[in-house]
Amino acid sequence: MAAEESRCLLGYPASDSCPRVQNKKLYLAAFAAVLGPLSFGFVLGYSSPVIPELRKINDPKLRLDSSQASWFGSVVTLGAAAGGILGGYIVDKVGRKLSLMLCSIPYVFGYIVIISAQNVWMLYFGRMLTGLATGITSLVAPVYISEVSHPKVRGMLGSCVQLMVVTGILGAYVAGITLKWRWLAVLCSVPPCIMLLFMSFMPETPRFLLNQSKHSEATAALCFLRGPHADHAWECRQIEASVQEEGLNLSEFKNPSIYRPLLIGVALMFFQQATGINAVMFYAETIFEDANFKDSRMASVVVGSIQVCFTALAAIIIDKTGRKVLLYVSGVIMALSTALFGLYFKIILPDQNNSSNPDVWLTLNSASPGTESSISWLAVASLGLFVAGFALGWGPVPWLVISEIFPLKAKGISSGACVLTNWIMAFLITKEFNDFIGFLTSYGTFWLFSAFCCLSVIFTAFYVPETKGQTLEQIEAHFRRS
After folding, report:
1. Is 467 helix (H, G, I), strand (E, B) or coil?
2. CA distances from 472 to 29, 87, 145, 242, 243 (A)
3. 155 CA to centre of own chain
4. CB-CB contact of 158 with 34 (8 Å)
5. Is 18 exposed, middle or buried (0-12, 13-18, 19+ CB in 10 A)?
6. How far apart are CA 160 and CA 35, in angstroms?
């Protein structure tokens, strides 16, 4: 019976009488791990309510001008890119559990620097540190969750990474309505402290332990995660069968089983940012103001709530629909909504071809009086549709897929390359967005994003494997055969 249960939880065919897996402690371990992405969300959401306050602050040493405000928001992505490289190294050296615990240090220290800031450079340094922790977290948390989970719930638990990120962003928006910037930093430092406490009681992943030849510890970890009645020895044998020689030489990247999942992962991260999520969020407050939503902070809360609701929906259905279906639906929705955004700006904005000033805010204000308010519903509908579409697929699924497709020996370096790609793309699109507007015009830029959304659907159809219901060992074997 125990062996039958193990085969059931690992996704192999079994009789209908197969008993249910004991998931309680697995859910506890996943909850402890996703406190990292919650902290990551608070970092991303922190700048939205804080920048308007710091632009008006009385202390001239802390007051931000428009350029400094832009850097305060975007320097996190540079820290996160560095965190992706560091995370790729330490996740294989010290393990998944300890990597998550260690990343709480730059989170907390970064917020301490922000709280005690005496000048703008201290604010930058604090944001850089929290960005470093964010980069490590965005790599390690999905890997930990995918390696402790079994196929029946891995999609749901893996999607909870993005769910907690958007919950953290929403939490920062809501708390920012009432809290001053220093007290908001204090609040943001709480989740990483709780993660450090909880993770200290959780096991290391069985795959990492077996890769280190720690068989008794791996069996104990499986006993904790699966319950006492599962056939732990059988699952250990399944994992060990896929664990090849230790170490990874650069020459092995000529092997399709190594480079194919890496290219797929890097492309997923590229398309996630190239769909225009940061650009759309950049426009969000102005769009709501044009539609007579006077409180821009409440508008941010509305956008954050849409993200949370549709990411939660994705987490619930992903193990039934599969990964590719959500990427298809999400890509089509985003292609349509960004095309509508382009139409909106084409209608309300004058000819920009000869304009030497690409500033988004000025071009919006130069629209014909009354035009934007008469069709502002189009922009609001496009915004809501886009955010919902992104949250349903291209928000959570790429992070889940990159945690599933890499072989164990290449997981650190491959995941690091993907995280680095994601955060460099996020930085470039955030910082160079105005240059895009100047070169392509507003509507041209959004139509370009729409084209990338269409390309993402085509890429998914031809290159992204469906991983629903498969063990990590089966996914590895798929790339070895191909």
Report:
1. coil
2. 18, 21, 12, 9, 11
3. 14
4. no
5. middle
6. 10
Q: Under a CB-based contact definition with an 8 Å cutoff, are residues 52 and 174 in contact?
A: no
Local structure of residue 469 (DSSP, 8 states): T
- The rounded distance, in Å, linking the Cα atoms of 109 and 129 is 7
One-letter identity of residue 61: K
Statement: residue 291 has pLDDT above 80: no
Q: Going by C-beta distance under 8 Å and a sequence separation of 6 or more, which residues neighbour residue 283?
A: 341, 360, 379, 383
| 448, burial (CB in 10 Å: exposed 0-12, middle 13-18, buried 19+) | middle
Instruction: Give the number of residues written for the chain.
Output: 482
Residue identified by tokens 């100047």 is 438
pLDDT digits (tens, 9 = 90+) for 127-139: 999 999 999 999 9
Give backbone dihedrals phi and psi of 246, rounded to 5 degrees, phi first.
-75, 155
What gap in Å lies between CA 428 and CA 118, rounded to an integer? 29
CB 55 within 8 A of CB 69: yes
How confident is the model over 183-195, as pLDDT tens digits? 999 999 999 999 9
Q: What does the alpha-carbon distance between residue 230 and residue 218 come to, in Å, rounded to a whole number? A: 14
| Rounded Cα distance, 14 and 380, in Å | 49
Q: Give the position of tokens 């995280």.
A: 419
- Spatial contact of 284 and 386, defined as CB atoms under 8 Å apart: no
Q: Residue 291 gets which letter from DSSP?
A: T
CA dist., res. 246 & res. 202, Å (int): 25
**Contact assessment for residue 451 and residue 346, using Cβ atoms and an 8 Å cutoff:** no
Express the helix, strand and coil content of the chain in percent, nearest 5 each.
80, 0, 20
- Contact predicate 204/100, CB 8 Å: no
Torsion angle, CA of 155/156/162/165, rounded to 10 degrees? -150
Per the CB < 8 A criterion, the answer to whether 282 and 432 are in contact is no
What is the model's pTM? 0.84
